Amino acid sequence: MSIVAALILFDVLVIIYQILIEVFTILYRINGINLEISRFQVISLLTGTGFTTSESEGMTITKKRRKITQRIMFFSYIFNISIVSTFVTIFASTANATKEEIPICIGLTIFIILFIAIFYKTKIARKIIDKIVMTIINHRKIKKENFMLVYDTYGNKVIAEIELKILSEKMKNKTIEEMGLKEKYKIQLLVLKRKGQVISEIYPNTTLQESDVAVVFGKMKDIKNAFIKEIEEKENVKITI
C-alpha cells in the first residue's frame, strides 16, 4: 500500500471514529447520562483505555447501558487493530514516498486536522445534535415510566434527577422519614420540583408524590433499589434510567 492510500485510510478511520463517538454519546445521553460523562466514557472505551472506576457503575447498571457498552467495546477492538496496522503501513511506506506524493500527504494531514477542529468547534452541529437528543428524551418522558438523568459523579456517588411517574407502595403517602430514604436506602433528597415550584427545604415529614421531580444524592445502586428495582419487581412496570 502506498503512503497516500495509507493516509486516506487513516483519514477515513478518524472520521468513522468521530462519528462513532457522537452516535454512542447520543445513545448514552438518551439513557440518562450527561454529555461530559458520556463523551469521556465513549472515548475511553473506543481507545481501549477503559473507563474510570467511580463512573463505570453508571454505564453498566441497566440492560440498555450494558448493551451500549458492549457494542462500543466491540467497535474498539476493530478500531484499535485497524489504526495500529494503518500506522505501521504509513511508517513503512515513508521511505518509498515519491516527490509527487509528499504534497498530497501534507494536504491529507491538513485536511484531517481541519476536520477535527471544525467538528469540535461548530456550534450549529452541536445544537442540532442536542435538539435531537432532547426531542427523544422528552418523547420518552411522556410515557408512563420513571426517567432518571445523572448530573454528575462524586467518587462512588451521583447527583441525579428522577421524574417520578410511579411510586412504589412503600413510598406512597409516606414521609421520607417513614420510607427510610436516608436510613434504609442511603439516599439524600436535595430538592423537589412540584407543579412548577421548587421545594428546597427538605424535612423528615416531606412526602413524595407522583409527577414530582426529585434531585437526589447517593450511590447509583441505592438509587436503583429505591426508585427502580423495587417497582419493577413488585409492580411489573417499566422504568427508564
Please explain how this structure is put together:
This protein is an alpha+beta fold and 241 residues long. Helices cover 57% and strands 13% of the residues. It has helices at 3-30, 35-46, 53-60, 63-94, 101-121, 123-142, 220-235; strands at 147-154, 157-163, 188-194, 197-199, 213-219. It has a five-stranded antiparallel beta sheet with strand order 1-2-5-3-4. It is elongated.
The total of helices stands at: 7
- Give the CA-based shape: elongated
Strand order of the largest sheet: 1-2-5-3-4
| Sequence stretches where pLDDT stays below 50 over 5 or more residues | 232-241
Q: Mean of residue pLDDT?
A: 76
- Quote the beta fraction: 5-15%
Structural class: alpha+beta
Q: What separation lies between the terminal Cα atoms? A: 47 Å
Cα gyration radius (Å): 23 Å
Compute the number of strand runs.
Answer: 5
Structural topology:
Blueprint: H1 3-30, H2 35-46, H3 53-60, H4 63-94, H5 101-121, H6 123-142, E1 147-154, E2 157-163, E3 188-194, E4 197-199, E5 213-219, H7 220-235
Antiparallel strand pairs: 1-2, 2-5, 3-4, 3-5
Helix pairs in contact: 1-2, 1-4, 1-5
